[in-house]
């Protein structure tokens, strides 16, 4: 006889059961709510959107965004976060491609958006969806074309957060502080749902500035490397973090000098972790483990990793992962999904890594130079090139990431164009896509270097 199966654990409840409510459970950009307030407002959202096939959320860094996202998750409606500064090209693509029926959040310049009222209260009594149901459709850049929708199952979110809670001894006693955007894995999945699932307090600082981090008095801090490099350039703010339990860096490589400066100023070594939109966080330094510059730690519970041979290998290879945190595929793109899966079902990350004898992972580069990481944002060269080519004065465009002290990489565009200046092209991209996808510099060329087949040769571009 088979045991009756247990109903799934609610995604947003700590595994240990209900947590004590606090008047200041959640604070976003200065707006403070109790857990009961948040779930009351989210329950009202859930009641309004129940039955929709998916819902877009204009993901400003506000408590309204958190209530909208939680409302979607309560109702079992897949949530599609929209970067709040997305220009019409990016925004229309995300809404059309995802098929989102509604847009939650104050209307943007397109006039579309259902405001979320934090004063509303409703209890939600719907049942918990199955772990295979989609929690999020997160739009992320590939090397070419428009961003793809990454289908993230609820069970992947739960497994990923529980793995991190175990690795970091993350509990309801923590206060998590960060100021990251609420439309990506780092700020939204870890930084908001992680707090709700562990039951810890969350202080979202609106922007991730050193001063705001210093003033927040947290035990657990999240930042992308650019945030940490700005923190160490503000020693007074850095010293204010000395009493924290864990300073966590991720989304891009933390430069070794920033690691060392953080240790010198705060007395503690940062914890690095590695992940992707498609896999959530898969590898992390543990709270009780070793923390070394350039190392991102060991696989999280349930995750397995291996290296696939690359040309000139020598101990490094393309990192492949499998485990409970993987995405379910790219929305409506079976070929793209098949291309990143191996025959035995592992995910090809596109990152080049080394695994030390003790199991510690180091990320040493990316297989493709057409995926740029700037300020911790993933940006596809092709998407920016297409935006530039939409400008009537631009005949050719090649976009690259150039090493940059603050941003890790800086987006530089090489164009063949007539009658348009650098700033006009930067603004043109910023207005059509998200602001962080704009080139920071534009170089004008007579022609792009091409090979005999006519394909642009980015390696032959002149230095900026
Ligand atoms: C500047 N601005 C312009 C503009 N130039 N606006 C329009 N047109 C132009 N031409 C304005 C913007 O409106 C905005 O204003 C401000 O400038 C933004 O400046 P910026 O220079 O772009 O910001 P910057 O200081 O460079 O940002 C650094 C940063 C940011 C660290 C704060 O890069 C950031 O938040 N990164 C986090 C990325 C992240 O979360 N990635 C996680 C991916 S998940 P205003 O008024 O708004 O200031 C992932 C998985 C994993 O990777 O492993 O975690
Ligand atoms: P995204 O899809 O925006 O989540 O970006 C994922 C990419 O960020 C990965 O493929 C890596 O290239 C990079 N990344 C994330 N975390 C780290 C890290 N700790 N060190 C180096 N690169 C990282």
Automatic annotation (TrEMBL):
<feature type="domain" description="AMP-dependent synthetase/ligase">
    <location>
        <begin position="30"/>
        <end position="331"/>
    </location>
</feature>
<feature type="region of interest" description="Disordered">
    <location>
        <begin position="1"/>
        <end position="23"/>
    </location>
</feature>
<dbReference type="Pfam" id="PF13193">
    <property type="entry name" value="AMP-binding_C"/>
</dbReference>
<dbReference type="InterPro" id="IPR020845">
    <property type="entry name" value="AMP-binding_CS"/>
</dbReference>
<dbReference type="InterPro" id="IPR042099">
    <property type="entry name" value="ANL_N_sf"/>
</dbReference>
<dbReference type="InterPro" id="IPR045851">
    <property type="entry name" value="AMP-bd_C_sf"/>
</dbReference>
<feature type="domain" description="AMP-binding enzyme C-terminal">
    <location>
        <begin position="383"/>
        <end position="455"/>
    </location>
</feature>
<comment type="similarity">
    <text>Belongs to the ATP-dependent AMP-binding enzyme family.</text>
</comment>
<dbReference type="InterPro" id="IPR025110">
    <property type="entry name" value="AMP-bd_C"/>
</dbReference>
<feature type="compositionally biased region" description="Pro residues">
    <location>
        <begin position="1"/>
        <end position="17"/>
    </location>
</feature>
<dbReference type="InterPro" id="IPR006311">
    <property type="entry name" value="TAT_signal"/>
</dbReference>
<protein>
    <submittedName>
        <fullName>Acyl-CoA synthetase</fullName>
    </submittedName>
</protein>
<dbReference type="InterPro" id="IPR000873">
    <property type="entry name" value="AMP-dep_synth/lig_dom"/>
</dbReference>
<dbReference type="Pfam" id="PF00501">
    <property type="entry name" value="AMP-binding"/>
</dbReference>
